[in-house]
Write a structure and sequence with these properties.
The protein is of the alpha+beta class. The chain contains ten helices and seven strands. The chain has three domains: 31-119, Cytochrome c-like domain (Cytochrome Bc1 Complex, Chain D, domain 2, Orthogonal Bundle), CATH 1.10.760; 120-176 and 245-258, Cytochrome c-like domain (Cytochrome Bc1 Complex, Chain D, domain 2), CATH 1.10.760; 182-227, Roll (SH3 type barrels). Helix content is 41%, strand content 14%. Bound molecules: heme C (2 copies). Residues 47-48, 50-52, 59, 62, 64, 69-70, 78, 81-82, 86, 89-92, 94, 104 line the site of one heme C. One heme C binds next to helix 3 and helix 4.
């Protein structure tokens, strides 16, 4: 009998591990491998440093480490630039194998960090269509269009890194920012309010409730607060292809609130 709670806890631990493994395998499909990044770093040192410099900022107006190009480039476009060069500029064409191109792209996407993560970045225009047909706008708002029940994504591209955006899409429960955890409060008057926190300070909390109303509640009036651990956001894993997820990440990155 004394062991029962321990066994129950072990069972939970096993469940957690069992559910974490496929999630990680899923994420790995959407990122370049550590081997790709390392191979790319060697190739970069040998072929690109001469002009772009060890930090990627050797050509004016371009910073490869920070993904700053003449215009936003998808992974495929990056491969094309390296393969074809840029005519009438100093950027020469390179004859590289597909694996070598993957390496170069991976090293750039990892921000020149061989221990970093390199998220696959697709095409932002296609990603906009994926967003439109995947029902994202039934919860999210972009540039004033859509409800306020979920976070406004108008400037998400300047707030989050690619890997964090990808985590939100594939494993929402792991990607949740603390402020975005669903909240339920019960007031002294016996009212239950649930929704999403917009803001919180020492004396009050502002909540968008599940009917999309903005409520400001004095903390002194709250008798119970619960923060949910699971995200109301459905995972796109298994619903969208690897290419669609990379397009969606590209679209979200392009949202800078300008
Ligand atoms: C001989 C010098 C030189 C070498 C070597 C070189 N580049 Fe470039 N690269 C340039 C120049 C100059 C530009 C700017 C082209 C322009 O004005 O649009 C450029 C532009 C780029 C761009 C940005 C294109 C865009 O549309 O914004 C990328 C990406 C790039 N290079 C990647 C690489 C990679 C990867 C390598 C190594 C495989 C490499 N370059 C090697 C000179 C070089
Ligand atoms: C049923 C409502 C719902 C739908 C549908 C939905 N989301 Fe979400 N999403 C949420 C909620 C609630 C959060 C906040 C909690 C969290 O981060 O998981 C969120 C969080 C996010 C975040 C992280 C925001 C931040 O501030 O970190 C991104 C990015 C995102 N969603 C994108 C999408 C995209 C793209 C789609 C369509 C494929 C989508 N969502 C569909 C409800 C939804």
């Amino acid at each position: 009998m004394r062991y029962a709670p321990l066994l129950a806890r072990l069972a939970t631990a096993v469940l957690l591990i069992a559910s974490a493994v496929p999630a990680l395998a899923q994420v790995a499909d959407h990122q370049y491998s550590a081997e790709d990044i390392t191979a790319g770093s060697r190739l970069y040192a040998a072929q690109c440093t001469l002009c772009h410099g060890p930090l990627g900022d050797g050509v004016s107006g371009i910073n490869l480490r920070q993904q700053r190009f003449r215009r936003p480039l998808s992974d495929d476009q990056l491969r094309q630039v390296v393969t074809n060069g840029v005519p009438n500029t100093g950027m020469p064409p390179f004859r590289l194998q597909p694996r070598e191109l993957d390496g170069i792209v991976a090293f750039i996407r990892a921000g020149f960090d061989v221990t970093g993560t390199a998220v696959k970045i697709g095409d932002a225009a296609r990603g906009k269509q994926v967003y439109a047909r995947s029902g994202c706008a039934t919860c999210h708002r972009i540039d004033g269009v859509g409800p306020r029940t979920a976070p406004d994504l108008s400037d998400i591209g300047s707030l989050r890194q690619p890997s964090s955006l990808q985590r939100s899409l594939l494993t929402p429960n792991l990607g949740m920012m603390p402020i975005n955890r669903p909240i339920r409060v019960v007031t002294r008057q016996g009212e239950t309010i649930q929704g999403r926190r917009l803001n919180e300070d020492t004396v009050s909390v502002q909540i968008i409730d599940d009917k999309e109303r903005l409520r400001s509640i004095a903390k002194a009036d709250i008798t119970l607060t619960e923060l949910g651990k699971s995200s109301p956001m459905p995972s796109v894993s298994g619903k969208l292809s690897e290419a669609e997820v990379s397009d969606l990440v590209a679209y979200l990155l392009s949202l800078k609130g300008l």
